[in-house]
Amino acid sequence: MSQPARPDAPEAAQPKAPRRRAKAVEPAAAPAVAPAPAATARRPRDAAATADRILQAAIAEFAEHGYTGARIDAIARRADANMRMLYHYFGSKKALYLHVLEAVFEDIRIQEQRLNLRDLAPLPAMIKLFDFTYAHFAANPLFIRILASENLLGGKHLKKSTKVSAMSSPLMAAMEDVLTRGVAQGVFRPGVDPLQLYVTMVALSYVHISNAPTLSHLFSVNLTTARWRAERRRHASEMLLAYLQSPPALAGG
Fold first, then answer.
1. pTM confidence score
2. pLDDT tens across 154-206, in order?
3. Of the residues 53, 119, 130, 184, which has the fewest C-beta atoms closer than 10 A?
């Protein structure tokens, strides 16, 4: 009876050794998880930055394809974002498009306010406003395409914005102030309507860009060359100033 008890003792001791070795190996797997926080750190989840990426991607997509042709999934890919995030921040395609319209108009309105037209003498103020308007359209072809697309839709989306019209009021007030001071100083002709004048500035800054392909073909002249556009800018400036400045007889009394 004493002999069977001897082999039992080694058999009970043998399973314990492998269990201890298996536990000792487990900590080695922990370093494999460490790179995950670093990957997250490379792209922090900043809500504002993500929303802005989506908005900028939407501006490019809507400018290229118009409202009807633009695709939400394409915007998400451009922004390196997923569809869930896009709908979370903007809600729908219509809502995103309206944000795009408001963003491009807000951009030009903010920059116009930074011109501080009220702080300038009348003639330099109008020259500065026209130079800015001309340069802004030249530097922002996406803005021109979005305007053209929305005009083809009859402005139906822009009409839903409560912000865009309010954004334009300070510009009209500043132009009215400059014109009034210009008349009082004998620099500008009286009776110039600020809205009519601004629409003229836009037309002089816009049409040769938006219609460049057709006009270039019709008249066998490349309207996109730097030389032609420099001549166009000089011509437009001279026309605007000739209209604004008072004739000598009127200025004298």
1. 0.76
2. 999 999 998 998 998 899 999 999 999 999 999 999 999 999 999 999 999 99
3. 119
